[in-house]
């Protein structure tokens, strides 16, 4: 279909420049193209292939080919190498520690950190974001892994002996009890660790697929519903759950691993019931490690301007703790739980279990949403800070493939992490070359250094995780300031925190999003309303409830409604209008009709010679006098009404009709073009918009002047 031009329309809107000045405002002519033609044009453009276009597509999909040839080596290399080494040093202990959250062996966390950095280097558009393991995602993966292990018949409380953790990848000699499993599609003999990583890779693959599909269908707008209050509340609530899950490692007790809703409370009950079994060696180690880590973090925060690079406290603590544990034989003498053997090298790649995906398909949805929401928000934040641009859609592709491809190499879900990104930017990072350096550091550990962490106590890893939650847990200190800034956002934050902690992380995120949206709906259902008065000797009007010394406009009521007018708030609109003007036209019309009827009956009785005493007659006459209204015009300020639906248009038409029956005129002022178009389509201005210049005004003052000139207001009114 050929392009069709919309008819040009002329709107006559009363201006307030002069006492009777009006002039036509001609709307621009917009060209409307049919949807079929638009689709054809896009398809033709998309399917058109040339060498140049193919090159652009490849370079858009792999942004590294655009910026790497322009890399200023002398200017950038030192900052990238320094930040890459620092992040690599931080990644190693965090990777080993976060394996506890995911319920997986430390080797898988190292794989995840390695592959995520390489893939984001190739596909990411942010120069500063650090992509890798993230505590919240590790927790979410771990909860799904634990659930599936229980359903498969494994005992979550069975801790593998450190000496038996040999990780023989040939599959012929598993040192854990082998089960002939058919649940989830794993029909071959598979041990607990094998089954756990199978669940994690299936979940990760699906999450990556969802993220790529969001990029293909441009569904990035979904992240808009994750407000800052929801994300902060979710992170804080999940941090409480993470802290709770690590307490058993801190004090060295063995308790049942809770599942389902209410993990937070159930875990704490089990902790207090088994507190007498605490391992004194683990308790002392935890106290010392937390004291050292917190002190180092506080010193680092205080003197961060003087320190060129952050203190590698986690690495120092891990090295020292491993040496003490090894030479002190803490595992053998005090039965302190240790990490066990971590193999070197890479496991052969393997397809994720597609039958298992049917069981975890729903669990991958919040994982995908949280992953890309944190990645995009961090990318845009640092792009704005350092004055460059990122492509949100490409970021979704990048983080999606950071999950899809590594899932073939025994990795689990990743996203951008704020703490590592802050460190990365503060240590001089210029480009994603730093990610390659970080991956090289992790690779060094994977190939040579991993077995050295055999004697590392699990309580030390738990300490690293808990201290890393300082930022999220400190959000509780900001509650008074947050409450002072916005009470509704504070309520959203609190609801999300406590639902994430007390119910479950996934339900907490869902509840937070739904409650946040409910708050928006409630705000539009019961918005602020006001009657306006005139600012002395000006053409401006403001809320007479909020400001003093405003002049009321004689014989007129100016009503402001600060929200869209639609089906959900039309009743509130009417109630507010009737309450603030002091007149319900429907009831008043009914009263007048009733009074007229009584008056006619009274006249008939008088004609029949009915004798009425003087006082009774006076009372009756007074009762029959209709209510005197102190205004003849209602002006509705539409400046805050962003749109009208069908119910809103009908509501406006009804109040015009009802008030006209009482000889009260209703005028509209300050309507935006969208509202004007809706009113036209609803025939609010009559046939061919003939009454438009009498009902619609550019400003409130123009409506007031029009009413005065047409004798709707008293001749002596001061405007």
TrEMBL record:
Keywords: Cell membrane, Glycoprotein, Membrane, Phosphoprotein, Transmembrane, Transmembrane helix, Transport. It is found in: Apical cell membrane. Its main location: membrane. Residues 546-707 form the STAS domain. It catalyses: bromide(in) + chloride(out) = bromide(out) + chloride(in); iodide(in) + chloride(out) = iodide(out) + chloride(in); sulfate(out) + 2 chloride(in) = sulfate(in) + 2 chloride(out); oxalate(out) + 2 chloride(in) = oxalate(in) + 2 chloride(out). One of its GO terms (cellular component) is apical plasma membrane. Belongs to the SLC26A/SulP transporter (TC 2.A.53) family. This is Sulfate transporter.
């Amino acid at each position: 279909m050929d392009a069709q031009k919309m008819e040009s329309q002329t709107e006559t809107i009363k201006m307030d420049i002069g006492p009777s000045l009006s002039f036509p405002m001609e709307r621009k002519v917009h060209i409307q193209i049919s949807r079929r033609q638009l689709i054809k044009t896009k398809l033709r453009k998309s399917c058109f292939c040339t060498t140049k276009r193919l090159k652009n597509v490849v370079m858009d999909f792999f942004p590294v080919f655009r910026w790497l040839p322009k890399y200023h080596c002398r200017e950038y290399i030192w900052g990238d190498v320094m930040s890459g080494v620092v992040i690599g040093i931080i990644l190693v202990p965090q990777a080993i520690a976060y394996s506890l959250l995911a319920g997986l062996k430390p080797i898988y966390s190292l794989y995840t950190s390695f592959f995520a950095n390489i893939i984001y280097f190739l596909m990411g558009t942010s120069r500063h974001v650090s992509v890798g393991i993230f505590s919240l995602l590790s927790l979410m993966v771990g909860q799904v892994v634990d659930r599936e292990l229980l359903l498969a018949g494994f005992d979550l409380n069975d801790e593998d002996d450190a000496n038996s953790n040999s990780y023989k990848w040939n599959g012929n000699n598993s040192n854990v009890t082998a089960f002939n499993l058919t649940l989830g599609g794993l029909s071959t003999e598979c041990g607990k660790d094998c089954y756990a990583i199978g669940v994690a890779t299936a979940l990760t693959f699906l999450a990556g697929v969802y993220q790529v599909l969001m990029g293909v269908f441009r569904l990035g707008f979904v992240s808009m519903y994750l407000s800052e209050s929801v994300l902060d509340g979710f992170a804080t609530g999940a941090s409480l759950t993470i802290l709770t899950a690590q307490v058993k490692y801190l004090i060295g007790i063995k308790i049942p691993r809770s599942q389902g809703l209410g993990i937070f409370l159930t875990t704490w009950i089990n902790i207090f019931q088994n507190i007498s079994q605490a391992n004194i060696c683990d308790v002392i180690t935890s106290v010392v490690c937390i004291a050292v880590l917190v002190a180092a973090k506080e010193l680092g925060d205080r003197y961060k301007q003087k320190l060129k690079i952050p203190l590698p406290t986690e690495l120092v603590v891990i090295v020292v703790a491993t040496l003490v544990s090894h030479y002190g034989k803490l595992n053998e003498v005090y039965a302190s739980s240790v990490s066990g053997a971590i193999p070197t090298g890479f496991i052969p790649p393997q397809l994720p279990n597609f039958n298992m995906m049917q069981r975890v398909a729903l669990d991958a949805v919040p994982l995908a949403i949280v992953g890309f929401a944190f990645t995009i928000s961090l990318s845009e934040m640092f792009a704005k800070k350092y004055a460059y641009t990122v492509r949100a859609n490409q970021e979704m592709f990048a983080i999606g493939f950071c999950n899809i491809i590594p899932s073939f190499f025994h990795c689990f879900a990743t996203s951008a992490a704020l703490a590592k990104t802050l460190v990365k930017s503060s240590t001089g990072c210029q480009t994603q070359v730093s990610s390659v350096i970080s991956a090289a550091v992790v690779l060094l550990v994977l190939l040579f250094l991993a077995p050295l962490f055999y004697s590392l106590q699990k309580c030390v890893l738990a300490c690293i995780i808990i201290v890393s939650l300082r930022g999220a847990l400190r959000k509780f200190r900001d509650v008074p300031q947050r409450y002072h800034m916005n009470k509704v956002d504070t309520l959203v934050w609190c609801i999300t925190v406590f639902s994430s902690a007390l119910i479950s992380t996934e339900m907490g995120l869902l509840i937070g999003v739904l409650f946040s949206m409910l708050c928006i709906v409630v705000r539009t259902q019961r918005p602020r309303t006001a009657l306006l008065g005139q600012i002395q000797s000006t053409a401006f009007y403001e809320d007479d409830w909020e400001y003093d010394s405003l002049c009321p406009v004689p014989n007129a009521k100016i009503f402001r409604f600060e929200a869209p007018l639609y089906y959900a708030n039309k009743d509130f609109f009417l109630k507010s209008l009737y309450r603030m003007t002091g007149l319900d036209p429907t009831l008043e019309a009914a009263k007048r009709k009733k009074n007229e009827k009584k008056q006619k009956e009274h006249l008939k009785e008088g004609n029949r010679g009915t004798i009425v005493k003087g006082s009774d007659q006076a009372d009756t006459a007074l009762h029959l006098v209709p209510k005197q209204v102190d205004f003849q015009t209602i002006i509705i300020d539409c400046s805050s009404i962003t749109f009208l639906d069908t119910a809103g248009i009908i509501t406006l038409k009804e109040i015009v009709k009802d008030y006209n029956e009482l000889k009260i005129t209703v005028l509209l002022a300050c309507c935006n073009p969208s509202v004007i178009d809706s009113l036209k389509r609803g025939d609010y201005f009559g046939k061919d918009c003939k009454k438009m210049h009498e009902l619609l005004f550019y400003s409130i003052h123009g409506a007031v002047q029009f009413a005065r000139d047409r004798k709707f207001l008293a001749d002596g009114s001061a405007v």
